[in-house]
Amino acid sequence: MHALSLVCTLNASPTSSSSLLLSDQVCAELDKLGVTSETIRVADHDVRPGIGTDMGEGDAWPLLREKVLRSDILVIATPIWLGHPSSVCQRVLERLNAESSQTDEQGRPLLYGKVAAVAVVGNEDGAHKVSADVFQALNDVGLSLAPGAVTYWVGEAQQGTDYQDLDTTPEAVADTTHTLAVNTVHLAKLLREHPYPAG
d(Cα 77, Cα 89) in Å, to the nearest integer? Predict the structure, then answer.
């Protein structure tokens, strides 16, 4: 099985990123379960605005889309900005929206059978709201979500500590990340063996 993690930090490489750190921890848990993974920092690529699969010359989404379609598991990692997913995350969700009209030979959306998970970081409240927004969008385009499909960390509001500034990973975050990985892989295996029926 293969996982793709799209990290939606606003910062391009090589700037450090709390979203990238939590994504890496999710991928490490998936690796323990025999899942290979690839991580892409979306801000490093020219993903054009729109809801098409290809927005023309220079659009980096078609290459990223191929990676999404080849994966069994899609992880979306985003910071919280102004109580919402990042603008980069929103753009990824908008581009994924094009998949609603793309179907396989049995008429099912191409993302049916793939499983998604979410990782959220921030130093303000809003992890549940952000995960709810992203969950709904992912489900709308055909991805499935296991129980406990989000892991998150939020620091004290209006303070400057980031997740990457912590000396150690809080036990609650580590446990939640482990549960996310176990449940997500379990569901992905089930859907591989028992695909959704054609409409």
Answer: 8
